[in-house]
Amino acid sequence: MRTRRMTHVLVTATAAGSLLVACSGAGGSSNSDGGGKSINVLMVGNPQMEDIAKLTKDTFTKDTGIKVNFTVLPENELRDKVTQDVATQAGQYDVATIGAYEVPVWEKNGWLHELSSYADKDASFDKADLLKPMVTSLSGSDGKLYALPFYGESSMLMYNKDVMQAKGITVPERPTWQQIADIAAKVDGAEPGMRGICLRGLAGWGELGASLTTVVNTFGGTWFTKDWKAQVNSPEFKKATNFYVDLVRKHGEAGAAQAGFTECLNAMSQKKVAMWYDATSAAGSLEDPASSKIAGHVGYAYAPTVATKSSGWLWSWAWAMPKTTKNADAASQFMLWASSKEYEKLVGEKLGWSRVPAGKRASTYEIPEYQKAAASFGDITLKSIEGADPANPGVQPRPTVGIQYVAIPEFQDLGTKVTQEISAAIAGKTSVDKALNDGQKLAEDVAKNYQ
């Protein structure tokens, strides 16, 4: 699938500095004559990944002798770094966290090791227990798994129940975006320094691009029609973007143009915003009293809609093995453990059941301890994941699968460039019209490759 063009598109950005979290020592991926094996793992710096970095040494390494060297990066930097390493076949990492967007594209380029053979051989892994949407999104054209899900997610609305109660507001379980905008206006300033809502404004196809595209979908817009006509400056796309930008500028978090998942998580957990629309996986962190001031006081609702019945995205941060690894056996052992029932139980017992990396296994939602910890958000999370439709996320046919992205190699570059302009509009440095007109030209250039 245009390997040469893809490599050029994907390796345009370079990663910034990284945080190296070494379990049993740092160093390259190599076989040690006396100390077993060492693997390098590159992963996104979300709370669930930070948890596994803390737990690996005293559990997985202790049991297997395999040393795991973690490099943890913010989302945008992670995407640049892993793309650069895999696309150029540099071979620096044995395992990397990627998502549903990369798997089918990278599999077609022969960059990933298939993982079904490893999962099938390990009866305790129980591949049949994985949720079908996760398996489908992480499989290649041959039907085999090319990544193992660490956790799965859709998107939903999270809100401060105390603030809503004080204001006499009832948040609908299935709200519309206009209802959310009206509520944001009413609760803005409800407490000193509190803003009405947090929405991602940080540029990046997987940051601002993810949340905005779900809004575009339900407003009736799309990046491309089924026959590859660019629609970035269409009336529907423009209406959705103006709504999003206006909402975050009027009632959104401080510094919104630099706020992504991590910043919004901090703002919500520290009671700096009254609502937040984002990943269902954030609930576990919000309900952790060790880090969240709002634990036990969060309400949850389905992703807001306009013209569609649902609008939640579908994503999985998953473990993938580049073809370049020289430690396939050790890497596969780590990935199988990291996505296992055993690991979920470890997190629940050591760190708390709300922090279990859920959204990937049906059995997770049958664990009594997890059911209790996730009573307020577990059902909405599972139903949102099961109800997500990557093949038909809007009001018109699409040229590829994907809810919050377009499954083509060029989208990583296109989505990032367009969201850079929209982020600038959030910061007041340009207009939405200019941002989308410029984006339309970029999208038209991409469309020529497929028409």
UniProtKB/TrEMBL annotation:
Coiled coil: none
Alphabetical list of SUPFAM superfamilies matching this protein: Periplasmic binding protein-like II
Signal peptide: 1-26
Gene3D superfamilies reported in the protein's UniProt record: Periplasmic binding protein-like II
Name recorded for this polypeptide: Sugar ABC transporter substrate-binding protein
Pfam families: SBP_bac_1
PANTHER family in UniProt: ARABINOSE-BINDING PROTEIN-RELATED, DIACETYLCHITOBIOSE BINDING PROTEIN DASA
Stored PROSITE patterns: PROKAR_LIPOPROTEIN (PS51257)
Organism superkingdom: Bacteria
Keyword Signal: yes
Keyword Signal in record: yes
Keywords of this entry: Signal
